[in-house]
Design brief:
heterodimer, A: 380 residues, alpha/beta, D-Maltodextrin-Binding Protein, domain 2, 6-stranded mixed sheet, 15 helices, 42% helix, 14% strand, B: 285 residues, 13 helices, globular
């Protein structure tokens, strides 16, 4: 199938009808899985007679699988849709594994808030129609309101807070932890905008040096005296729930409400975003270049972008994911529905935390931070 | 027929491994991979000079050997203690309740066992909470760090938990097969002491007869992934954690380093196995 920009949508619909679409996505959250199984699947079946098969896999698994298939010279892959974010997008573009551009061909694509840089840019990379925005989130810090008060708002306050609470703070040595370090890196600069655009060795060198010095200073007061760090966010959540640390974090600003409803966090758990800001980013849907059923994938993605599917996904009791649609472009009926929707109760409103949102810097910052954190802090 | 079976075995078991090693060698030399730019020694040069080679090798071998030694020592003592006065030992071939009981840890998958031990040994875990309520500690931070620690204590405990039942069962079966209980009674009647018998007869026979299994378990321990991932520290990393980290994290340019470590691991195991086989041949002949 040729890269689509002007293809007649009705022919896509006709080809997609009564087909099976395979989607690979992270399935580590019960509410997200429920949304896909109990809402998306039946609606796709009802509207388009499409059978959506969802399999588990994320970031590196997607990249490894597609890379192995490309290296083996395969002509097709069973994956039709993949759920990705910036660093995976960067890797998949590096190996030319994505199909596109296709975004403009989607009827619901016109509703996307494409003027919003947090949506149109993925880790400072123009999406160029090679991925479709699906949801938008912002990093939050999570604490138990009965245990923790005087929440740190700036790096100076973090330093003081960590010293006052020895052994009670750490971060995961994974995507989430590195996202927090990126927020700290940006906070060290007076102007966050210097991190916009392409990777700069000079900027990285300047501010990462300050960051390692900062971490070195607080390190003896971190959990396990900064000698080791949880390998995943799930492990960090476990430490928090066990009462070993006073804070955890998440890239999903609805995480607290979700986890409280699942009984993982206590009802007194709350989220906040420090004044120095945290990174806001979007997550996207891509179609592999070798996908067997590109028409089916386009139809499914178009549905996931619909006001109906986005509204359902945004409900706190369902998933609580931020929408990528520009609500001003919606019909009056949908706008009203959106305005009246229930709000989450344990995290600050999105509108409020968006005021201190930081843009994701280029992917090389993440790669370098991860490597240097290991070399200069963990292995030191 | 036998020849055919041998070829079939080689095709099913060895061919995929050889192909895998070939792929890793090729990747580490820049000869394959979507981002490769042609033949280069650069990945190997970086690998040999980075310090990861030495730290991962020492850490992995250390954890494997210490876990094995503790499990062997404990297995010997348990099988010896349980069997030496049992008159029925030499005749019994059935499975008693206690024998079935020692096999319970085998029901745990390594990842489940690692998670259980984490819940037991972490500063927020069962023992720490118990110590807190007993007034032995005043805060969870007072509890000694046994998991995610730099010495791998949690890993060793979990490894021993996983393999001790097998060793105990094997040692008991070996003692039974060679009627060591009867031999012990005879040596006692001739004036030999328990410790002397254990040191000069029981342990050498049991260990020698099971040396191949012990060897295989050492290799198993060197390759475990979930246990060091959950219970280990962030640095150093075992072979398996290092390889997975390089092959699956953010930097695609790091993939050759993962392949270098995989080749190094294969070479190390091959050399160690050859040395073991040589030792075994020498002892037998």
């Amino acid at each position: 199938m040729e890269a689509m920009t002007t293809k007649d949508w009705s022919s896509v619909e006709a080809s997609a009808k009564s087909t099976t679409v395979h989607m690979m996505m992270w399935q580590g959250d019960r509410l997200i899985n429920k949304y896909m199984q109990d809402y998306v699947k039946p609606r796709l079946d009802e509207l388009y007679d499409i059978d959506l098969v969802v399999t588990d896999g994320q970031g590196n698994q997607v990249v490894n699988r597609l890379m192995a298939e490309l290296e083996a010279g395969r002509k097709s892959t069973e994956l039709d849709i993949i759920w990705i974010n910036g660093e995976t997008f960067y890797q998949l573009r590096q190996i030319n594994a994505l199909y596109g551009p296709f975004l403009e061909s989607l009827p619901h694509g016109k509703l996307i808030d494409i003027e919003n840089p947090f949506i149109a840019m993925d880790f400072q990379q123009a999406i160029d129609g090679y991925e479709c925005p699906w949801g938008n989130v912002q990093m939050i810090m999570i604490y138990d309101s009965t245990r923790t008060a005087n929440l740190p708002q700036t790096l100076e306050q973090w330093s003081t807070w960590i010293r006052d609470h020895p052994g009670r703070f750490t971060w995961s040595n994974d995507f989430t932890g590195m996202t927090m370090l990126k927020s700290w890196l940006i906070a060290l600069a007076d102007d966050p905008e210097i991190f916009h655009g392409e990777f700069s060795e000079e900027i990285y060198a300047t501010y990462s040096t300050e960051l390692w010095k900062y971490i070195d200073d607080i390190r003896p007061h971190l959990w396990n005296r900064g000698k080791s760090y949880p390998s995943s966010l799930a492990q960090l959540h476990q430490l928090f729930v066990n009462g070993e640390v006073d804070m955890t974090m998440s890239n999903n600003d609805s995480e607290v409400d979700n986890k409280i409803s699942q009984g993982v966090f206590t009802p007194t758990t709350r989220a906040y975003v420090p004044q120095m800001g945290t990174i806001q980013n979007s997550h996207y849907l891509g179609i592999p270049r070798l996908a067997d059923n590109k028409e089916g994938a386009l139809q499914v993605i178009n549905f996931l972008l619909s006001p109906e599917a986005q509204y359902e996904k945004s409900r706190p009791a369902v998933w609580g994911d931020g929408t990528v649609l520009d609500r001003r472009k919606l019909s009056a009926e949908w706008q009203e529905k959106w305005n009246l929707r229930e709000q989450r109760s344990s995290s600050p409103p999105r509108e409020l935390i968006s005021e201190v949102a930081l843009q994701e810097p280029a992917p090389e910052y993440m790669i370098r931070l991860y490597e240097d954190f290991r070399k200069l802090i963990i292995e030191k | 027929m036998r020849k055919l079976l041998t070829y079939l075995f080689l095709c099913i078991c060895l061919l995929p491994i050889l192909l895998g090693i070939g792929y890793s060698i090729s990747y580490s030399l820049g000869l394959t991979g979507l981002l490769s730019e042609g033949f280069t020694w650069a990945h190997w040069r970086t690998f040999f000079t980075s310090g990861n080679l030495l730290s991962s090798t020492l850490y992995t071998l250390g954890l494997g050997v210490v876990s094995l030694l503790i499990a062997v020592a404990a297995g010997l003592v348990v099988s010896w203690t349980g069997g030496r006065y049992d008159k029925g030992l030499s005749q019994s071939h059935g499975s008693s309740l206690s024998e079935l009981g020692i096999l319970v840890p085998l029901l745990f998958a390594p990842v489940t066992a690692a998670f259980c031990w984490y819940q037991i040994l972490s500063p927020g875990g069962f023992i720490a909470r118990l110590s807190y309520h007993l007034g032995l500690i005043t805060d969870t931070t007072d509890f000694p760090r046994i998991v995610n620690d730099e010495w791998g204590i949690g890993i060793v405990i979990c490894h021993v938990f996983l393999i001790l039942p097998v060793f105990t069962y094997l040692f008991t079966a070996t003692a039974r097969k060679h009627d060591l209980a009867a031999l012990y009674q005879q040596s006692r009647s001739l004036g030999s002491g328990s410790v002397h018998f254990f040191r000069t007869v029981y342990a050498p026979i049991v260990l020698f007869k099971n040396s191949r299994v012990l060897w295989l378990y050492l290799i198993f321990l060197l390759g475990t992934y979930e246990v060091p991932l959950l219970l280990g520290s962030s640095s150093p990393q075992t072979f398996s954690v290092f390889i997975a980290d390089k092959l699956t994290k953010f930097n695609l340019a790091d993939i050759p380093a993962g392949h270098c470590m995989a080749i190094w691991y294969t070479l190390l195991i091959t050399v160690m196995t050859l040395l073991y086989l040589r030792w075994q041949r020498r002892v037998i002949w």
